[in-house]
Predict the 3D structure of the following.
Amino acid sequence: MKNTIILLTLFFSLQFFAQQRHGDRIKTLKVGFITEKLDLTPEQAQKFWPIYNDFERKIGAIRFKELREYRKQIRQNLDHMTEAEANTLIKKMTNAEGKMHELHSNLSHQLLGVIPAKKIILLKLAETDFKKKMLQELRKSRKGN
């Protein structure tokens, strides 16, 4: 059953791979990677993915909207920024990072009712492994170009 779920996930991922935007392709690969690593039962997957997707959406909003905007302000204004403006920016960045930490903590608590603690640890390892794999692929593609 597990192999069937993985194969179906990969099949549908490949079906739409060419049609999806780059970010969507990475998300699809990540879903397949996590699905394989966690070995979720169908019942666990049904409860896990809505929680995880909501977490990813919220983290993405902070990472790609708030933090990106703060970094942009730093790049554009650092030379002309006052100490007061820099302090305000530091507080905003720290607040955003704190929200991300809280989301990570909440994710673990929410998932404890859905999957065993060992699978939550496996999730953290799988996320790290996926990032490493993506960076390796990026390096390979840059060397090839």
Observations:
- The two ends are 40 Å apart (CA to CA).
- Confidence is low (pLDDT under 50) at residues 10-20.
- The helical segments are 2-17, 22-38, 42-77, 83-111, 117-144.
